[in-house]
Structure formats: structure tokens, C-alpha cells
Specification:
The structure holds two protein chains of two kinds. Chain A is an alpha/beta fold. Chain A has a single domain, classed as Barwin-like endoglucanases, CATH 2.40.40.20. Chain A is built from five helices and six strands. A six-stranded mixed β-sheet of chain A has the order 2-4-3-6-1-5. Chain B has three domains: 41 residues, no CATH class; 210 residues, Rossmann fold; 169 residues, Dimethylsulfoxide Reductase, domain 2 (3-Layer(aba) Sandwich), CATH 3.40.228. By secondary structure, chain B is an alpha/beta fold. In chain B, 36% of the residues lie in helices and 21% in strands. Chain B is globular and about 75 Å long. Classes of the chains: A alpha/beta, B alpha/beta. Chains A and B meet through strand 1, helix 1 and helix 5 of A and helix 1, helix 4, helix 10, helix 13 and helix 14 of B. Bound molecules: iron/sulfur cluster. The site of iron/sulfur cluster has 14 residues of chain B, from helix 1.
């Protein structure tokens, strides 16, 4: 299925902040492993709230739950800061020491794949780390 | 039950210091007033790490503090390119010892600024910054601008205590006497309160600062009809709000530092503030995230001459973000041991940097389990600063505040743990020298 092109941003949310020191919890997972999109983009993707989407950039891909949100223009997707958003970010800091966390070009598609729980996401990282 | 007043919240850079809590049986049972939802959640506590642990055959096994500290010191003493990262959710006293440890082992010491306001620090080194305290803002600023920052979600008490909603000495009417402008890529709870909201296209902050600056400097005629999705009319209105204010303040967040142009955005933001000085008074301030991210930068600067990302491998302090920041080091797969304190890089670093943490021994010092513990080989639980341990921290406006000890604990403090590791490392080195 065709995906849609978006500009991806990340940032803090209240629910992310409340679970900042409680990251192994279900609440953190529910608060952070999500992607907020405006209504039009949800329709273009053919997903409804809480269905899974795959977000892909030049640096990685990740599966998260789609959430409808007001206040975004078309073509902007938001993933709260955290491990799922960072799966899509490059470690190249271009001389600033700081990765480019915001304003990434991304493609989003609907998917049947499951959202990885934090321990599974990191298990995958560990496997990939040792392959390298 | 006792009520403790003037408790300081050890969470965000607002460092609220007028919190009241109820303490029963050596536990904070209730937050009576002063803290926001996020601060309350921290003060009331989460599940803790119960005991120091060392990974044996892939599984973390409980051990004593002595064992964990000794093992950590052994790893660090023989490391060739150790990274000591975190330092923002702990007190300055611990930071100071951490910097001494980095020097002792020829390591790189870096704090979380390198992934939030590092670019702001670089910009301030470039062009300086017109700054002030939050108290001055509360009492004088009749125009508050939040740019790429959403305090209603991230620094929830900020507007109420220090800016738009607070009642000031010269502005007794609170928000009736003040104006709020917001620039952001999305509508937020903060932007909904604003008199002027400019919904900017992502990555166009540099252009918009330039446009506002041009108008402030009297070159309105060169501004195109639209900049970064904002019509010229609105840009002129924002510039006029600045001109007409008696004192304006721009707070900027990671919407500006983490987007395209990074430190250059901040240089432009600072120069735009200076352009405002052609007409009135005003200042600009980064919305620092962790309660003591600023404190590490202060301590590191007075100890080494540089604010973060300091590399001691040459035997003297060397600073070059882009080369010596944590993401750079991990992304290049360079470091061979990592000591992580009071932070969680596994959640906040790009995937490739996190993968390198999976390859090397990781020592973590933290009160809580977090995703980085998944990668840790040595886990050393610590007392929570501001609740179980006291010390100095620096608020976002560079004002030092003493965080308090509210309850007793058996956990060792960050400062003690790092101090003990440093002693052990020195003992190992002395022995080797014999
Ligand atoms: S605004 Fe920040 S410092 Fe104040 S109570 Fe909330 S989290 Fe704590």
C-alpha cells in the first residue's frame, strides 16, 4: 500500500513527562509509542485511531499506533520524544553534537505489524548491534 | 504526619521551590500544593531499583554497594575511551566529582545538554546573550514570547510562577497586563492562550527570526509577503508588539534547537532580541529541561573552561562538539566503557548510538529502572536528589537553588557513589604505578 510523505517532529507531552521516570511501564508505552496525525492524513492513510502505522526515514523504521490529533497542519506527524521516535533519527550530528530530532522527512504506511514493547525494541537493537 | 514546606521540585528547569508535602513514616504521602502534575508524580515516587546489581552470564544479580563500586572502578580504570554521560538530574556536588573522575581516567564527560540546549550553549559562546532572572520577568515582562516551546505541557508551572499568568510588582493584573505570543509548528495548549500565534513551517525558524529582525531594524520593505508560512502582516504585528512592550522576553525551546540550522537559529534569535533593544528593553532565555542541566554546564565551565562534551584523553580539557559530544562518540562506535548517571540515553539517543551501548560495558547510577538499565552491566541505585539528598542546582535563569532532603534513605547519594568510584580508581592506579 502507498504511504504518505510527512515531516516528522518529536517533543514532550504531559503523559510522556508524567512517566519520565517510569519508562518500563504500560503507561509510558501507551503515551509514547504513538504517532499523532491530523484527520486528513489519517484518512489518506486509511487508518483509524489506534491502528498501527509504520514510519520510515532514511535512518530507520518503527511501528507505532496512530492517533488523531487536532492542531497539526496536513503533512506533519508527531511522535513524543522517546525510544520509538529515536529509532528514526541519525547519529550524525553535523558538527553540532546534537542529532537532528525534528523536521525529518518520513514516509508513513498502514501496517499489520505489532508495536514493539520497549524490551523487545531493545532486544532487536542488541541483536543488530552484534551483527554489525 | 508532618507537613514540610518550601520543598524544591527536582524535575524540570523551572525548579519550583514553594512546594508543600505531607510526610508520614519517612515517605511523601501527599503533595499539598505547589507542584504541577509532572512534579507531583516525581515527588510521590515510582518503583525503585532495590539493590546494586552486576550482570553475570547475561542476568543482573544483586550485590553489595562495595562490590558494584569496585567493579565499576576496575572497568573505568582500564578503559581506553570511557564516556561519562548524564549529570543533569543530579546536584552540582556530584557533577564536580564526576568531572574529576573523567580527568583521572582521561575520559569524555558530557551532559544531556548535548541533546537539548547544546546548540544554545554554542550560540551563547558565539554572540553572548542578553539575559535576566525569572523574577525580573515576572515583575517586568509585559510581552512574553514562547518560541518552539510548549510550557503548558513541558514546564507546567512556568507561566504561572514566572511569566504570562504570574502577577508582577509592576504588572499587578497578571495576564490582564501582559501579552503572550507563541511561535510553533503545531497548535499547543500554550498557543491556544496566545494573543498572537504564528504556526510556522518546520525548519523555517531562522528565516522568521531574520524577518522579525529586519522589521525591528527598520527594513520592513525587504520582507517578502510570506516567510515560513507566516504572512508579512503577522510578522509586522509581532515586531510591533516587541517595539511597544516595556520589557519583552523570548523563551525558546527544543523546537528551535533541534530543528534545521540549530545553533544558528539561536544566534539569530539572540540578535533579534538585540534588534529589539533599538526600541525597548528585553531578554531571551533557553527553556532548560532537567532541573540541573544548567548546573552541570556551570560546574563544567568553572572546572574545565568548557560547558559540556569535554574530552580529557589528551591529558588536558579539549572541547569540540561534533567530535566530543556523546552522540558523536557513540555513533562512531568509539567508546569502550560508558558510565551513565541520572539520565537515560537509551530512550533519548538515536538508535545507532543506542546500539553501541549494547556492545560495551555500561555502568548506570540512577534511582529508577529505565530503558538504559536494559543495557547495563553494573547498576548502582542512588538516593533521589531533592527528596532523599540535598545539594545545589541551577535554575534555567542561572539562579542557584539548594534542593532539600525531605526524607531519610539507605540509598547512597550520587555524590558519595562517584566519590567512592574515584577513590577506588585512584587506588588501582597507584597500585599499577608501584
Ligand atoms: S514546573 Fe517543573 S519544577 Fe515546577 S513542579 Fe512542575 S516539574 Fe516541578
Amino acid at each position: 500500500m502507498e504511504g504518505i510523505k510527512v515531516i516528522l517532529i518529536s517533543g514532550r507531552t504531559i503523559a510522556q513527562g508524567e512517566n519520565l521516570e517510569n519508562k518500563m511501564s504500560e503507561e509510558y508505552f501507551n503515551a509514547v509509542a504513538i504517532c499523532e496525525l491530523n484527520e486528513g492524513d489519517m484518512a489518506r492513510l486509511g487508518v483509524s485511531a489506534d491502528e498501527n502505522v509504520k514510519v520510515k526515514t532514511d535512518y530507520g523504521e518503527v511501528v507505532v499506533k496512530a492517533k488523531k490529533a487536532k492542531g497539526y497542519p496536513e503533512g506533519i506527524a508527531f511522535i513524543p520524544m522517546g525510544p520509538w521516535a529515536n529509532a528514526l533519527v541519525s547519529a550524525n550530528t553535523r558538527g553540532a553534537g546534537m542529532p537532528a530530532y525534528k523536521g525529518l522527512d518520513a514516509v508513513i504506511t498502514k501496517t499489520d505489524e505489532a508495536v514493539l514493547y520497549i524490551t523487545d525494541l531493545f532486544r532487536k537493537y542488541k541483536e543488530e548491534a552484534w551483527k554489525k | 504526619m508532618t507537613v514540610v514546606t518550601d520543598v524544591v521540585c527536582p524535575l524540570c528547569g523551572s525548579v519550583c521551590d514553594d512546594i508543600e508535602v505531607e510526610v508520614e513514616e519517612n515517605k511523601i504521602t501527599k503533595v499539598i500544593k505547589g507542584a504541577c502534575a509532572v512534579g507531583k508524580s516525581k515527588l510521590q515516587g515510582h518503583e525503585r531499583i532495590k539493590s546494586p546489581m552486576i550482570r553475570v552470564n547475561g542476568v543482573l544479580k544483586e550485590c553489595s554497594y562495595d562490590e558494584a563500586i569496585k567493579k565499576a572502578a576496575e572497568l573505568l580504570a582500564k578503559a581506553r575511551r570511557p564516556l561519562l554521560y548524564g549529570w543533569s538530574s543530579t546536584v552540582c556536588e556530584a557533577d564536580k566529582v564526576g568531572i574529576a573522575l573523567a580527568e583521572e581516567i582521561g575520559g569524555v564527560v558530557d551532559n544531556t545538554a548535548s541533546v537539548c540546549h547544546g546548540p544554545s550553549v554554542l550560540a551563547i559562546q558565539d554572540v553572548g546573550i542578553p539575559c535576566c532572572t525569572l523574577g525580573q520577568i515576572k515583575n517586568r515582562a509585559d510581552l512574553v514570547i514562547y518560541w518552539g516551546s510548549n510550557p503548558a505541557n513541558a514546564h507546567m508551572n512556568h507561566m504561572k510562577r514566572y511569566s504570562y499568568i504570574s502577577k508582577g510588582y509592576f504588572l499587578p493584573g497578571g495576564k490582564k497586563d501582559k501579552k503572550l505570543a507563541v511561535v510553533d509548528v503545531r497548535e499547543t495548549s500554550t498557543s491556544k492562550m496566545a494573543e498572537l500565534f504564528a504556526q510556522i513551517e518546520p525548519g523555517k525558524d531562522f528565516l522568521l527570526f531574520s524577518a522579525v529582525r529586519a522589521v525591528l531594524m527598520g527594513y520592513e520593505d525587504i520582507v517578502p509577503d510570506e516567510v515560513g508560512g507566516i504572512p508579512k502582516e503577522k510578522i509586522v504585528t509581532l515586531a510591533n508588539m516587541i517595539k511597544e512592550s516595556r520589557f519583552f522576553i523570548t523563551f525558546f525551546g527544543m523546537g528551535v534547537t533541534q530543528s534545521r540550522c540549530r545553533q544558528n537559529n539561536i544566534v539569530n534569535a539572540i540578535q533579534t532580541t538585540r534588534a529589539g533593544h533599538l526600541h525597548t528593553k528585553g531578554a531571551i532565555m533557553p527553556m532548560r529541561g532537567h532541573y540541573n542541566v544548567n548546573g552541570f554546564n556551570q560546574v563544567c565551565t568553572w572546572e574545565t573552561g568548557y560547558p559540556f562534551a569535554v574530552d580529557f584523553s589528551r591529558g588536558f580539557a579539549w572541547y569540540n562538539p561534533g567530535e566530543t559530544a556523546s552522540t558523536d562518540l557513540l555513533g562512531r562506535g568509539e567508546c569502550d566503557v560508558a558510565l551513565i548517571i541520572a539520565s537515560d540515553p537509551a530512550s533519548h539517543f538515536p538508535a545507532d548510538a543506542v546500539k553501541h551501548l549494547a556492545r560495551i560495558p555500561v555502568i548506570i547510577i540512577d534511582p529508577y529502572h529505565n530503558p538504559t538499565t536494559e543495557f547495563a552491566d553494573i547498576v548502582i541505585p542512588s538516593a533521589i536528589c531533592g527528596i532523599e539528598a540535598e545539594g545545589s542546582v541551577y535554575r534555567m535563569d542561572n539562579v542557584p537553588i539548594r534542593v532539600r532532603k525531605v526524607v531519610n534513605t539507605d540509598y547512597m547519594s550520587d555524590e558519595e557513589i562517584v566519590e567512592r568510584i574515584l577513590e577506588e580508581v585512584r587506588a588501582i592506579k597507584e597500585k599499577e604505578g608501584e
